[in-house]
Design goal:
- With about 200 residues, this protein is an all-alpha fold.
- The protein is built from 9 helices and no strands.
- The longest helix has 16 residues.
- The termini are far apart.
């Protein structure tokens, strides 16, 4: 079978849905490659900074790794701006949606909120309120997001910083995005080998 025969989902047969399920499984297996390609595309994204968005992402991950972050947070640091091209007004939420099935909730929350927290560094320069993140000061992962932005993300625009190449992080991306999605052990923060 090359294609299904139905034109309405309600008319599909078991054989056709098994065929589609196998095609989807193969497509899902290719997710790490598509993420790597999407990261490479960041080399030709938002202009005006001293580094490309790809270099910024690599540098954020390099800084997280050097600081002793665990595998999930390093992978998240690498993909945190993946949504810059397709979702410029909510890039954080797009990146969080991509990584959510594969990491503990803390990591997802940090990535989802980093755009808001990051505003503290530039909104005041534009005459706007940079303190909106303070409304989350009582959240259990507030400090984690502060650290992400303060120590890794907002620091990662230095063309002279010894930044590791994408090839260094590819095995990590393949590991994280090759995990079973929504694994209860992973979502509970009990993934084997989680330390860096």
């Amino acid at each position: 079978m090359e294609t299904v025969s139905f034109t309405r989902m309600a008319d599909g047969t078991r054989e056709e849905y098994e065929f589609l399920a196998e095609n989807e499984r193969r497509h899902i297996d290719g997710l790490p490659d598509r993420i790597i390609d999407a990261l490479k595309a960041l080399d030709h994204s938002i202009e005006g900074y001293k580094v490309t968005r790809l270099t910024h992402s690599l540098q954020t991950a390099t800084r997280a790794e050097a600081d002793g972050a665990d595998k999930e947070m390093i992978a998240a640091a690498l993909i945190h701006d993946l949504g810059d091209d397709l979702a410029p007004e909510n890039h954080s939420q797009l990146a969080a949606a991509v990584i959510r099935p594969y990491v503990r909730p803390e990591v997802t929350w940090v990535i989802e909120m980093h755009g808001l927290f990051q505003m503290a560094y530039y909104e005041p320069q534009l005459g706007r309120d940079g303190d909106r993140h303070l409304r989350y000061a009582d959240h259990q992962w507030y400090e984690s997001c502060l650290r992400f932005c303060r120590d890794w993300d907002q620091e990662a625009f230095d063309p002279d910083y010894p930044t590791k190449p994408l090839s260094h992080f590819e095995p990590l991306l393949r590991e994280i995005f090759g995990r079973p999605p929504f694994d209860p052990e992973i979502l509970a923060g009990r993934a084997a080998g989680d330390s860096a």
